[in-house]
Design brief:
The structure is a single chain. This protein has one domain (2-276). It is 78% helix and 0% strand. It is built from 12 helices and no strands. The protein has helices at residues 2-17, 24-43, 55-78, 81-88, 91-103, 109-126, 134-157, 163-184, 192-215, 221-228, 230-242, 249-276. 49% of the residues are buried.
Length: 279
């Protein structure tokens, strides 16, 4: 999960730095269609990569995930990356709600405190400002809601499907969503650097998504979201190291809240596992 968060950080920053001529639909199409090509090139020689279990749920997850990604990219285009991520990372809470309605799961008070502490840490870390585009703020929260539902559905799919098939259907549905707008006004990289950035988006998103899908084999949706919140710490570190952002008290306080919550949650899960196994 933490490896996936690091790769998603690289993807988000690349999207932010990409030429504004590339709209959310261009970025989405390159990511999704590029992912399809890579999966077929690597896995299509030995077997049919589209063969999975519960195709209907795979399609639903692909549509929901596509909405989440398009919403996040739109938010990043309207807002600073930090502000967009603060709002988007409300999705562990949305995932907890979705898990309650879909699986009937209840969350303990200690787990609820961990979720709240992560969200507080993210807000402290970036000193979120609610000024700016209301469209961007709405899309970030909207994307968080759909991301919460997405990671909840991945848990069901992961029981009988590998991470590749889950990501492939995500790419297929995402391509269908983005293709009409892309084809109406196609834009292609015009320089070597833009090609590197677009290809980088494809490969970082592919690697991150496969790692995340595999991670959900070991944890519930909202738990994975809490672990994935380490993405905001990586974003802050990049700002400090490469963009000369100050390592203020917000960085240390927010970072400790996020990391501490993840450690506590991991400890809670370990104790649950020991009790279930009679240890």
């Amino acid at each position: 999960m933490i490896s996936a968060a690091l790769l998603f950080t690289a993807m988000n920053l690349t999207i932010k730095l990409l030429n504004p001529a590339f709209t959310v639909w261009h970025i989405g199409f390159f990511r999704f269609f590029g992912g399809i090509l890579i999966i077929f090139l690597i896995f299509g020689k030995k077997a049919n990569p589209t063969k999975g279990n519960n195709i209907r749920l795979l399609i639903i997850r692909g549509c929901v995930g596509s909405v989440a990604f398009i919403s996040l990219v739109t938010a990043i285009r309207f807002l600073p990356v930090s502000t967009a991520l603060v709002l988007f990372y409300s999705y562990p809470a949305f995932s907890a709600v979705a898990s309650f309605f879909i699986y009937g799961e209840r969350i303990s008070w200690s787990e609820m405190i961990c979720i709240a502490a992560v969200m507080l840490g993210v807000a402290v870390l970036f000193d979120v400002q609610l000024s700016g585009s209301m469209t961007g703020h709405f899309m970030a929260v909207f994307g968080g809601a759909f991301a919460g539902l997405t990671v909840t559905l991945i848990r069901s799919l992961r029981k009988n499907n590998g991470p590749v098939i889950i990501y492939l259907y995500f790419c297929i549905m995402g391509s269908l969503v983005a293709a009409p707008m892309f084809l109406s006004h196609p834009v292609f990289p015009s320089s070597a650097m833009e090609w590197v950035m677009v290809i980088g988006i494809v490969f970082t998103s592919l690697s991150a998504q496969l790692l995340m899908n595999q991670g959900f084999f070991y944890c519930r949706g909202w738990e994975g979201g809490v672990f994935m919140s380490s993405e905001v710490i990586f974003t802050a570190i990049i700002g400090i190291v490469f963009l000369n952002d100050p390592a203020s008290w917000r960085f240390w306080t927010g970072g400790l809240l996020v990391i501490g919550s993840v450690v506590v949650l991991n400890r809670i899960n370990a104790e649950k596992a020991h009790r279930q196994n009679g240890v």
